[in-house]
Amino acid sequence: MTDLPPPEKLLPHRGNMLLVKSLEYADLKNMRSTALAELGKDCLFYDRGRNGLPSEISIEIMAQGAGLLYGYREYLQGKSGGECAMILSIKRYEIFCDTIPTDTPLRTTNEITSEEYPISVCDCELHLAESNILLAHAEITAYKP
Asked: Model pTM greater than 0.90?
């Protein structure tokens, strides 16, 4: 897919809370997507002691990646997009690194595995984009009022 809208049109996050930089791919038929992020030392969550980002921030990066998929669907339906959803639960959250490197392209992969409005479940992964090394995985259940 080309010409996908920027994250600001799909998510409510702004400023230093917007961690994803683009929706890379979206398949609304199968409810799958990928998104890109690249966070530097100017990131709100940068940890000087680790010289990188704490690995726990991976859950927010993955959640925003999943949010782009939901936001894109709403955007195509002519809704305003960028509306807020709330995380109800996080299951099977595994982190495979101590620190997320800065200034390195990251990719989230997202697949909505179950959806019964207003609750949905999304299987998410965070990888180093260039080497495809898995950094984190989670199953996120969200509620969209």
From this structure: yes
